[in-house]
Amino acid sequence: MSLADHSLTSSLVRLARGADVPRLETALLRNFRKYAVSDGEVRADSIWDWLALGQHRGLPTRLLDWTYSPLVALHFATASPEHMNQDGVVWCVNFVEANKRLPPKLKRIMQREGSVTVTIDMLNEIGGMKKFDALGRKNFLVFMEPPAIDRRILNQWALFSLMSSPTAEMDTWLDQHPELCRSVRIPAALKWEIRDHLDQANVNERILFPDLDGLSRWLTRYYLPATAREPLEGRTVRRPDFSDRDRDRRTGRQSSPSRTRRGA
C-alpha cells in the first residue's frame, strides 16, 4: 500500500459508508452481470467467477488484492508519485496458519485437493455466497486463487482474500489473530530508491499491466521530471533525472525501456 495508514477495508464496505452492505453487494453483482454480457469476451459461469472478474475490473467487492511476490507488493507501495512523500506499508499474512481456523467443510475440501488456497471450483462445490457465509458461526478468512482472466493476474502473482461476510473487515479479524500477520513500513525517505531498484529489475507497470494502459502508466511515472517531487520534511529525496538515466543506460547500470526481462 502506498500509504501506511490505509486500512484493510474492502472497497465494498468503503462504498457503503454505513448503508446495507449485503444488499449493496447483491445489487452490484446483479448489475455487473447484467451489463457485462454485452462484452463478448466476458466468460463467467458462477457467482464466484463474477466476483473475481468484478474485483479484477474495479467493481467494489468484499475481496482484497494480494500477491505472493514481495517485489510486486513493493511496486504497489511505491507506484504513486503523489504519495512518495508519505510512508507506505506492505502487509504479510500467514494464510497457511489462517487455514487452521476455517470451517471443517471448507478444510476438508482443501485437504482433499491438496491446496492451501481455494479455487472457483472448490467454492462452486459449496454453493453460492450465502451458503459460503453460513459455513461458520464466526467470521473467517480464506485466500482465493483467481482464475487466469488475463496476463495481469499471472504477472502479478495475484490472489484474493475472501471474508465470510460482506460486512466483515480484515483489520478486525487480524486484530483478533495478531500472530498471523505483520506489517513492514516503507519509509518515505527510501521510496524513490526502492522504486528505482524495482524499475531496474523490470518490476513495473509495463510488466505487471501488460497492455497499453500499463505501458502509458509506466512511461508517465518513469519520465516524471525530478523537479516534480516534493521536499520531504525539509530534506531532498534524490530522484535520478533524465541525464542520470541517459548516462546509466550507456554504462549498463539502468534498465532500458526496451528490455523485456520479467521481474519476480
Explain this structure.
With 264 residues, the chain is mostly helical. 44% of the residues lie in helices and 10% in strands. It contains 14 helices and 5 strands. It has helices at 11-16, 21-36, 47-56, 70-77, 95-98, 104-113, 120-126, 129-133, 151-155, 170-176, 188-200, 205-208, 212-222, 242-251, and strands at 64-67, 88-93, 141-144, 158-163, 181-186. The strands form 2 sheets. The protein has a 3-stranded antiparallel β-sheet with strand order 1-4-3. Strands 2-5 form a two-stranded antiparallel sheet.
In short:
The chain is mainly alpha-helical and 264 residues long.
Order of neighbouring strands in the sheet with most strands: 1-4-3
Counting DSSP E segments of at least 2 residues, the number of strands comes to 5
Number of helices: 14
Main sheet summary: 3 strands, antiparallel
User: Which structural class best describes the helix and strand composition?
Assistant: mainly alpha
H and E string: HHHEHEHHHHEHEHEHHHH
Low-confidence stretches: 231-264
